[in-house]
């Protein structure tokens, strides 16, 4: 019998305060995990607060705090 796997699917959703576009920070940033700046579900830590984000829709730059 072959093994059956279940895949975690983590998203980090935010909304642009400028144009209200909703997007996933992980999907938008190809290097999110490679850069390893954050661990999965990280929140309430210095490195997961005031994180610079750029809206893929309008280019607005803002800061977010990761929450879980
Ligand atoms: Zn925007």
Can you put this structure into words, describing what you see?
Helix content is 12%, strand content 21%. The protein is α+β, with helices and mostly antiparallel strands. Strand 3 and strand 4 form a beta hairpin. The longest helix is centred in the middle third of the chain and has 4 residues. The protein is globular and about 50 Å long. The mean pLDDT is 94. The site of zinc ion has 8 residues, from loops.
Short description:
With 68 residues, the chain is an alpha+beta fold. The protein is 12% helix and 21% strand.
Provide keyphrases for this structure.
binds zinc ion, 4 strands, two-stranded antiparallel sheet, 2 helices, globular, alpha+beta, 68 residues
Topology of this structure?
Layout: E1 13-15, E2 22-24, H1 25-28, H2 32-35, E3 51-54, E4 61-64
Antiparallel strand pairs: 1-2, 3-4
Bound molecules: zinc ion.
Zinc ion binds next to loops.
């Amino acid at each position: 019998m072959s093994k059956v796997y279940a895949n975690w699917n983590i998203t980090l959703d935010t909304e642009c305060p400028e144009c209200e576009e909703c997007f996933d920070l992980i999907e938008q940033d190809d290097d999110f995990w490679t850069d390893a700046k954050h661990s999965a579900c990280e929140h309430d830590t210095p490195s997961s607060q005031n994180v610079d984000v750029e809206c893929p829709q309008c280019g607005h730059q803002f800061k977010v705090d990761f929450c879980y």
